[in-house]
């Protein structure tokens, strides 16, 4: 069950990865692929874009360790997993938001925020995290109630890196046009 839940959360994070192209400019690799700096995160009272006080600190959201495998062009995902001393029902009973901050040295800058609410799947709720300002970060949080008054909160973010060029997109569109022609011929 846990593998399915974690796999589904990861799939949601990948699905939310932006697909737009970036022009080539002086943007650093850290800005494109996401910073290696850990990002503090919390559950706050209130809603985005101006949540209130912290009710539960979460683990820093940071680069996932391990060996890189597969396509070198894959999009980096940063993650943090925390168990908080609140049941999902208690979190949902009032307005709360998950906030991801730029860094421990820059807590006043929010890079992603999401109002806690969404579809209840078993004992879990998924929450979309949107970019704050022009941070380029977005992702999801997956909250799972353990039935004992605590909730595991998994936060996944990604940075809108360049994953396609305008030329690549044009080629894809022409393939779609060709596929459309094939369908009408049959």
Write the layout of secondary structure elements.
Blueprint: H1 2-15, H2 29-33, E1 39-45, E2 54-63, E3 77-84, H3 88-92, E4 96-103, E5 106-115, E6 120-121, E7 124-131, E8 137-145, E9 151-159, H4 166-185
Antiparallel strand pairs: 1-2, 1-4, 2-3, 3-9, 4-5, 5-7, 6-7, 7-8, 8-9
What does this structure look like?
It is a single chain. This protein has 186 residues and is an alpha+beta fold. The chain has one domain (2-18, 36-64, 75-185). The protein is 24% helix and 38% strand. It is built from four helices and nine strands, in the order H-H-E-E-E-H-E-E-E-E-E-E-H. The chain has helices at 2-15, 29-33, 88-92, 166-185; strands spanning 39-45, 54-63, 77-84, 96-103, 106-115, 120-121, 124-131, 137-145, 151-159. An eight-stranded antiparallel β-barrel has the order 1-2-3-9-8-7-5-4. Strand 4 (96-103) and strand 5 form a beta hairpin. The longest helix is centred in the C-terminal third of the chain and has 20 residues, at 166-185. The relative contact order is 0.21. Mean pLDDT is 78; it is low at 1-35 and 169-186.
Q: Care to give the gist of this entry?
A:
The chain is built from four helices and nine strands, in the order ααβββαββββββα. By secondary structure, it is α+β, with helices and mostly antiparallel strands. It has one domain.
What's the count of strands? 9
* Rg result: 19 Å
Shape: globular
Biggest sheet, open or closed, and with what strands and sense?
8 strands, antiparallel, barrel
What is the H/E string? HHEEEHEEEEEEH
Residue fraction in strands? 35-45%
Spatial gap, N to C terminus: 43 Å
């Amino acid at each position: 069950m846990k593998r399915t839940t974690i796999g589904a959360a990861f799939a949601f994070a990948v699905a939310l990865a932006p697909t737009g192209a970036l022009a080539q400019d002086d943007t650093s690799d850290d800005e494109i692929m996401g910073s290696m700096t850990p990002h503090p995160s919390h559950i706050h009272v209130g809603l985005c874009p101006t949540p209130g006080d912290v009710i539960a600190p979460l683990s820093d959201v940071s680069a996932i360790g391990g060996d890189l495998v597969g396509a070198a062009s894959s999009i980096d995902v940063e993650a943090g997993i925390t168990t908080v001393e609140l049941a999902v029902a208690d979190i949902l009973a009032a307005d709360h938001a998950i906030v991801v901050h730029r860094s421990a040295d820059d807590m006043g800058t929010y890079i992603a925020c999401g109002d806690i609410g969404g579809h209840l799947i078993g004992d879990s709720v998924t929450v979309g995290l949107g970019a704050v300002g022009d941070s380029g970060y977005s992702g999801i949080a997956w909250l799972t109630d353990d039935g004992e008054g605590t909730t595991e909160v998994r936060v996944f973010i990604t940075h809108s890196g360049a994953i396609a060029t305008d030329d690549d997109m044009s080629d894809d569109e022409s393939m779609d046009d060709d596929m459309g022609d094939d369908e009408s011929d049959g």
